[in-house]
Amino acid sequence: MARDQVDMTPIETREELIAWFEAGSKPKSQFRIGTEHEKFVFTVEGHNPVPYDGSRSIRALLEGMQHLLGWEPIIENGNIIGLFDVTSGGAISLEPGGQFELSGAPLETVHQTCSELMAHLAQVKEIARPLGIGFLGLGMTPNWSRAEIPMMPKGRYRIMTARSASGHVATPPALTTGPPLAAPSCSRRPCSAPAPAGGRPRRPVPPAARRSDRNCASSTAGARLR
After folding, report:
1. Residue 152 has what pLDDT?
2. Does residue 10 fall inside a structural domain?
């Protein structure tokens, strides 16, 4: 989601869940296409995962992109965890293991989304090159172990990882029997929940009703109606 923030008010009844989905209904004339493009971040020297902090880091990438684009920073507990374009509605966010994601603006044609993605890749490479950082557009990392991958400083990722690993929440089998949340994977998400007319939803779908990223994963770029 664009601002990487949610309303933590629990959805407690079937009626509330139905109402949440109904709030995202919109006429066909308002349908738009949005790109979600995730990529692994690695050090050019050594091909290692990039930590959140340090001179060569995810934080440095985000701060560089903020200075280049002038987008609004998304801050959690003093850490920059994303960027938001208040004009177009596009965003840059982080996946659990530092995967760098473009969450594109709602656009009318795939040609517009293609232009947006190409511009994003040129911009992020401009910032990454002096840092000695590169990007890998694959669905899985070729050789990193889970232990090598840093966890991003986002509260919901720490909670989700701990709870899915302990089995205390009703998660899909891909989460309970497979790798933990900071898995070495990138995905597309055509299964994103619909957005209300006034913007993206802020109330989280209960885990039992939500498909995991790994259930949606098939490539590093995808398009969705929203």
Report:
1. 92
2. no
In-domain check, residue 4: no
Structure tokens, 143? 């050789």
User: What pLDDT shows up at residue 146?
Assistant: 84
Using alpha carbons, select from 79, 58, 93 the residue that is nearest to residue 155. 79
Q: Which two tokens stand for residue 20?
A: 């949440």
- Contacts of residue 123, defined as CB under 8 A and 6 or more positions apart, other chains included, come to 65, 68, 69
In a domain, 21, yes or no: no
Torsion angles phi and psi, residue 67, rounded to 5:
-65, -35
Structural domain count, the chain: 1
Q: Is 24 inside any structural domain?
A: no
Q: Which amino acid is at 80?
A: I
Range of the domain at 126: 29-143+150-225
- How confident is the model at residue 137, as a pLDDT? 87
**Residue 131 belongs to a domain with what CATH number?**
3.30.590.20
**Whole-number pLDDT of residue 187:** 54
In the chain, which stretches have pLDDT less than 70?
A: 1-7, 163-226
**Helix/strand/coil (H/E/C) assignment for every residue in the chain:** CCCCCCCCCCCCCHHHHHHHHHCCCCCHHHCCEEEEEEEEEEECCCCCECCCCCCCCHHHHHHHHHHHHCCEEEEECCEEEEEECCCCCCEEEECCCCCEEEECCCECCHHHHHHHHHHHHHHHHHHHHHHCEEEECCCECCCCCHHHCCCCCCHHHHHHHHHHHHCCCCCCHHHHCCCCCCCCECCCCCCCCCCCCCCCCCCCCCHHHCCCHHHHCCCCEEEEEC
